[in-house]
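pipeline/complex-builder :: batch 7 item 3
reading input block
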Amino acid sequence: MTPIISEIGRAFGFALLQAAGLLAVAPLLKTTIKKMKARLQNRQGPPLMQGYYDLAKLLRKEPVRSDVASWVFVAGPRVYFAAAVSATTLVPVLIDAAPLEMAGGILLLVGTLALGRFMLATAALDTGSAFGGMGASRDMTIAALAEPALMLGLFTSALAAGSLNLGSLVRTTLQGGVTFHPSDFLAFAGLFIIVIAETGRIPVDNPATHLELTMIHEAMILEYAGPDLALVEWASAVKELLYLTLLVDLFVPAGIATSLAPLAIVVALLAWAGKVLVLAMAVTVTESTNAKLRLFRVPELVSISLGLAFLALAIRFL
Amino acid sequence: MIERWAWWSVRRVATWGCGGELSSRTEYTATAFSKPLTMIFRAIYRPTRQVETLAQVSSYFTQEVRYRSEIEPTFERYVYGPLLRGVLRVANGMKVLQAGSLHAYLAYVLVLGVLLLVWLGGTK
């Protein structure tokens, strides 16, 4: 009995540690992308700590809510935040195991993130503002298109490793080494497009826009202020970091620690940070060299991703 | 103390409506919500829209606007409809098997149940 309890205790401790770590780093990623984008436009950009300053400012502010909003409006950011944080416990970051990998794998991860997004979209409708409805409608449309492509891309990796569990998926990929299988490239390209779409980046959505009519994610959270907004912003940052970590895990897990030796952890930390930074650069370059697509052109982009993932899956079967 | 109170208190204000009045008529409807998906899958849904403006003196002074929007019930018409009709047709054909007394059928069920109980219970 006791070993099981201590096992569970260790898993939860590990989960708390990993969630706290990702929560701490996520604002930095957001600011880093902003900074790199600014440098590409010959601007100075914000200081690297700006993400934390913004969150601290928002958390200190007085929450302002609409007088017609119900509990759904209050629950929205909280469920969104909780979903993002619990999703971090299903993904291996530094060690070749996810803290709560016995709880579920890819399907639970996608489902948890979908739950958060559903609550936020429902909450956006709650204030009666047309902008919230517009944002929610667009966000759900893109989600409905992107999710099948995301699942297909993830299944390609799962098929190669023979497991839907991210922990054992990483371990199998690590054992197999880098194979340069063509399906990996196709699945990576497909998933990269989906990561762009899911994290609300140009060419799908513009995170820096001030025009309500071009907003998607921003329109959905337009009515939030103060701590409520801080939760949404923080959770979005965590989600972005999580998606980049997922790409790293699935395609280039090399460097991840296979033991708890301090040296291995330090190496894994450096490797993870480096790989996420490279992906962040790719996101930045994509964002800086593309124009935002019209909403009705987004399905074309997503169908490219769907096609790539489908091809990858087919090649994997051959 | 006051600052702490300020952190917990929630200010309630009206939803921002670009200076306009918000009411149930300005809310997002289910039709509007699902419109992007309808547009993307218009090959399946075949949405049609008809806007009619009625004016008496000049077209600048609109008296009435009639709006009509429709989608093709593709799945009902081409999937569920034929399926339902097929099942009903088969069921209609099978009716001849069951044209007798309902009491007799219930008696058959009872007798069969007892026989099954005796048979299966006996093997144990």
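note: Chain B touches chain A through 24 residues (CB under 8 Å).
queue -> next item
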